[in-house]
Amino acid sequence: MRALVLLVAVAALALSGSALAADPAHIASEQSVDDGHGIELTIATPAFSSGQAKARVYLPAGYDAQPDRRWPVTYYLHGAQGDQTRFWQWYGPEIKDFPSIVVSPDGGWLGWYSDWYNGGAGGGPMYETYIVDQLIPLIDQRFRTYGTRAERAVIGESMGGYGVMTLATRNPDAWATAVSMSGAVDNGSLPVTGLISGSSTAQEGGQQQTLAAPFGVYGDPATEKIRWRGHNPVDLASNLRDIVLQVRSFDGAPTPVYEGDPTSVVGCAEENEVHRDTVSFHAALLADGIPHFYEDYGPGCHGIPEFQREFADSLPGIEDVFAHPQPDPKTLSYESIEPHFDVWGWHVDADPARALEFLQLRHAGRHGLTLIGSGTTKVTTPPFFGHADAVDVITADGTRTVTPDAAGRISFPVDLGAPHPDQQDTAQSRLDGDGTAGYFTTRTVKLVPRSS
Predict the structure, then answer these.
(1) Do 253 and 296 contact (CB within 8 A), yes or no?
(2) Which of 237, 276, 337, 444 has the fewest CB neighbours in a 10 Å radius?
(3) How far lies 45's CA from each of 11, 28, 30, 103, 188, in Å?
(4) Distance CA 172, CA 342 (A)
(5) Tens-digit pLDDT string for the chain (452 aa)
(6) Is the full-model pTM beyond 0.85?
(7) Are 385 and 408 in contact (CB under 8 A)?
């Protein structure tokens, strides 16, 4: 149906892992799929040991006929034991009038849309890195997209719902709207912890591979709990303030409306669990004052008919976000366990001597910010100060005058006290008092530009 474009010879897929590591991710090949409705991309990427990943792209009606028009993009994240082919099988008819490009990446059979810890070794699979840092830019280069977060959505069911909210909480500046459909959105619940802990296989580039197990994804929750919390939508709910959210689930009670014979229901136990996870996530959002749409459908199980209803019900809300693009926030709050992070143009480097723990950036804007953590933390602002000769960085310890760089950014250290030696949420750190007031240091910084 659509002309195929061969960007790189298929032979490029034979590149070794070491060669790929030195080569940026790129589209290696394309082919028509799903009776011409979709384009399957093979991505050469060092994010996976296989050296490749798959994604399917579905172009909206009018894409070819309107060559000067740009389009928003909706990313679909499939559930467990799925791959990039699932979207069209389950939801294809729903998007015939949907004014958005749809991208369906392969998220692994049990990949959890995360970069795996692998016992501290790191390396592949790296689903978050692949989707956020590689696939999104490649899609924006290859297709006529707006290329902005204001015109980008993410939606998924089950494990994909977890992936939606994990990627959104960790990368809130990548998405305008995020939709969880019957998502396992609380990795702190025992059934979800058990399922993630036992995940040992991933689908990489169409090949099922056995990976580090057990505890390959985030490590042993008994000793690496902070890594789990640093990917848990319930723990990171406050990061979602500037994303339009939809959170949907059924309650797991069988009903003939969806399941046919209610005495032979498959998936009711699963939906009962994800319903509890969804309720926990909903409560966390309420506690943090995060606006969101919440739909508890009542009876229904973890099945395709329920997912299809959730998907159809979600599309109008996504379209509304695209129709009314929102500007980036003027101030933001964000927390992360990562030693280095970039969010909304801010770059933060934690003290290299500090053990793994949460670092909080609060009320950050052109006039200042608050940091909560430990150790000497380096902060680089967005390009706020292009017209200033200097900026006074004022803290309780005094004033430091900083000259903006050519782009208008400034960088400065913030003293958050001695770096904590023990990883947060371990037995030793709890003895140190990591759950008590005063354990983390809070510093407020005021930024005052000066011109001659």
Answers:
(1) no
(2) 444
(3) 14, 9, 15, 17, 31
(4) 11
(5) 333 333 333 333 333 333 334 468 999 999 999 999 999 999 999 999 889 999 999 999 999 999 999 999 999 999 999 999 999 999 999 999 999 999 999 999 899 999 999 999 888 899 999 999 999 999 999 999 999 999 999 999 999 999 999 999 999 999 999 999 999 999 999 999 999 998 865 544 445 555 556 799 999 999 999 999 999 999 999 999 999 999 999 999 988 777 665 544 678 999 999 999 999 999 999 999 999 999 999 999 999 999 999 999 999 999 999 999 989 999 999 999 999 999 999 999 999 999 999 999 999 999 999 999 999 999 999 999 999 999 999 999 999 999 999 999 999 999 999 999 999 999 999 999 998 989 999 999 999 999 87
(6) yes
(7) yes
Domains of the chain: 10-323 (3.40.50.1820), 332-450 (no CATH)
Report in angstroms the alpha-carbon separations of 369 from 31, 171, 334, 390, 440.
48, 19, 11, 18, 16
CB 238 within 8 A of CB 210: no
Find the radius of gyration of the CA atoms of the chain: 23
Cα–Cα distance between 318 and 314 in angstroms, integer?
7
Strands 332-336 and 359-365: antiparallel
